[in-house]
Amino acid sequence: MTNHWSDMVHADVIMIMGSNAAENHPIATKWITRAKEKGAIVVSADPRYTRTSSFADVYCKFRSGTDIAFVGGMINYALQNDFVQKDYVLNYTNASFIISEKYGFDDGLFTGYNPASRSYDKSHWAYELDGKGMPVRDMTLQHPRCAFQLLKKHFQRYDVDTVCNITGAPRDVYLQVCRHYTSTWAPDRVGTWLYAMGATQHTHGTQNIRTYAILQLLLGNVGLAGGGVNALRGESNVQGSTDMALLFHILPGYLASPTAADQSLAAYLASNTPRTNDPKSANWWGNYPKYIVSLLKAWYGGHAARENDFAFSYIPKRSGDYSWISLFEAMYAGQIKGLMLFGQNPAVGGPNTNKEIKALEKLDWMVAVDLWETETASIWKRPGVKPADIKTEIFLLPSASSVEKEGSITNSARWAQWRYAAVHPVGNSRSDLWILDALCKAVKKEYAAGGVFPEPITRLAWDYGTGEEVDVRKEPDVHRVAKEINGYFTQEKTVGGRQYKKGEQVPGFALLQDDGSTCSGNWLYCNSYAGPEKKDNKMARRSKRDAMNGIGLYPDWAWCWPVNRRILYNRASVDPTGKPWNPKRWVIRWNAGKKQWEGDVPDGPWPPGEKHPFIMKPDGHAWLFAGNLNDGPLPEHYEPLESPLPNMMSRQQVNPAIKLWHKDAPEMNAVGTADRFPIVGTTYRVSEHWQAGAMTRNLPWLAELVPDVFVEMGVDLARQKGVQNGDRVTLETARGKMSGYALVTRRFEPFRHNGKIVHEVGVIWHFGYQGIVKGDSANVLTPHVGDANTMIPEYKAFLCNVYKAKGGAS
Amino acid sequence: MKALLIDVTRCVGCRGCQVACKEWNELPAEKTRFFASPKGYQNPRDLSSKTWRVVTYNEAQTNGRFEWVFGHLQCFHCIEPSCATACPVSALQKTKEGPVVYDPDRCLGCRYCQLACPFLVPRFEWDKAIPKITKCTMCADRVAAGEEPACAKVCPTDAIVFGEREDLIAEAENRIHRNPRGYVHHIYGKDEVGGTCVLHLSNVPFEVLGYRTDLPKISLREYTKTAMQVVPHVKIGLAVALGAVSWVIQRRIRNGRDEKNGSSSGGES
Ligand code: SF4
Ligand code: SF4
Ligand code: SF4
Fold this sequence. Notes:
B: 269 residues, three-stranded mixed β-sheet, two-stranded antiparallel ribbon, globular
């Protein structure tokens, strides 16, 4: 989230799209309800009328997978009606930047496309530079190749009728949504945009979010209280685990994971450190060398020195895409022998689970660290298989739950909050930290005996207070871990006139060094544990004092990255002279007398106008036009991989830059067509269950609330299929079938596209063959296909058919 | 006198309250199945000795608008509770703080209270050798300790709030006044059966939520008392004892039918 949970109370309009906040983030509704009390308008855009829609002022339906058309139409509406915060757009976005002559767009394709590799040459979308290497700008925004005009031209095609034909949104309701939301262009009005996996889990998921960002920038809503682009994360600590490099393409702190081309630290830095010739650009990522060197120092301590390139050669270099689907495809192809799972349950949660379970069967061994024996840990005894036929050796390590261990979790709002162990772990279960500590020590011992390239393991700096031997009674010191993540001086060092002693905690990331004198496990968390004592652990703070602007920042409650900045991009909340766009709920403001900012921690200390506000961008401006994405600099509507309709915008049916697994690895990757599978299917969660269900289907109180899988379907479709509420139905896709109870409801309405009726059904995906309540997993239905930038699977839109099955409930 | 105000326009149906109730009161889970009627989400189907609070899911078309509204089944904590009046051994008591509490050690298991309650709240422990009556206590133990009831505490949207009954009525009137188009102009429980300590506000007619709208505005206590006093002993034919309150019998018949059909007292409009 750019903003935070309690900040939603400041919004005048709250758009909830691709999120069912009431069901999956019920606490968000506390703040949304308070905003409503103050007169805010809440809009829920969703294929299905949900518990979120039930408290919205406007509910607008749209077919799964047509988000870009939906928001593209809103962008067009704002541009056509001039509902644009002009000063903001002109000064703070790249609207005025001139784009290369090579840029073009025709029939769904941007210039630079190579059909053989299904990829783009992004140099076609670069800025035009002047002799000094500075981007050429047209401050009148009239130049036909300025980003603003290109944006306008691109989205002109998304007129209301076209949009409603593609999305199936009712025209009058859609116009209401446009009117409400674009009203926030006025400097004294603000809108917040909330989204979740309904937006991201598409073959064009990244571009879905781009449409939100573009609209929010045009309306001047980023950086303001009650504004921003806010991802409601799908798991309580997923922000923390992403910060700490959950994903394959990043190291802790969003540093790029090195590739095989990065043969030296210098080569790595050359390809990753952005440069700018603009003196007004802070170009924060220019600090790349300090962050990576400090990280290597945290990992390899004294073994990381300038002489050995700070042990850069020790860390793995990737030679491709190791995202979820790719890993399971490789596993299926027999290329992966072993798998460690910490709290993950791919047999329920992965896409195309029939294939993923087959892939798991090809492993030699698997270690599942979990609270319960999950479906994944028990594939060898799943219904319909003979245990003797499953060769994978499976180890189940019982782990402690969140209330049984101390540590931090980082919520969607980037707040790292310290928690304490309330009770001892049950039975022989151990914290993840204990398991990792013991594992690492054991593996180090193995490599100490020799190996092909043992140094990356044997030289790891690893001391969390448990000694050399594995000892079940010794819990690693989680404070040592936290302090190392923050970072400390590895030698005496003078910075900015102040001398720091060896071992002293680094007070903030601005002090991290690229000469090996500091270490930091994650530069973004530098400042979270700024001293040697437990009292210096800012994540444990619990003060309810508010900042002087009184907008509920609560700066002394826990700690938030970066450097406790509660609202990101807050330099955009003021005009170029430092005056808040909206003085009534100001985030920061320039105190000319004291020559300093007050309010939230600003995005950098410079006086107003001295630096451009979007300091993480090399050009200092927010990108309406984003030349770095794999599938184009502007979002364009494509249909999901499986869709009942032709793309009405162009002849490119699907995102031209996605990997087509059904072509590259056809086995168990069938793709369905509308003749056999005419119904759109989607998957989602309910309040009562959690993810793949291990944590909730094993809890009697939650199991009683939702004891079975159900399939929600509209009244018309049910009538056509002869299905009554409570009947058993089977859902089938080209990849698998599963059954559940039919929940026939008016909350799922058919869509009308150019006169053609399309039905959609939805199914909860929490179930599996383990736990006290069981049911079929919906992910046997979903395909192996991912977003062009992130490879997040397209769980949210596929083709299926539905049949009445035997049995039913009363 | 303390009370709860339940504003269904704020309720998002997350059921935190329902789980918190079980957690605080250490009530076991029930074995449930998908509940087709009314619409899938509601579970357990109805109040029981193990379930003192149930959120109901109601699809409705009102004022040309489609709505999904969430109703709430639990004890109303009547100001003059007919359950307490009907109880021959005073196992049920109205406390001056507001909660209507009961003493399971005193309960005879006669079920008079169940028949007397206009809302069909007290439930019998059918699965026990010596079954007693149970129901929501307004978390009297928490209230006595100065805490709010568990359901109110956990509710993320403040759809359930706890406070002095007078203050809550003023607050409810204020909400209706501030947003006259957003509410039915009625505080359910303000006057029903002489007033209750659980008050409801709604944006849809209360019958849509499955609430009874045929109740008198006066206390039923006098009827119940009369019914109990005309005969000297408690071991008396139920029909005779309750003949004076014919609506109760009507209710009871409906109750019997509902129990047989396995459907709920809350439900779809
Ligand atoms: S906790 Fe509150 S919002 Fe959730 S169901 Fe209960 S009353 Fe409604
Ligand atoms: S609702 Fe029924 S059980 Fe509750 S106090 Fe009133 S009469 Fe008694
Ligand atoms: S007041 Fe207490 S006992 Fe009654 S429903 Fe709420 S949580 Fe349950």
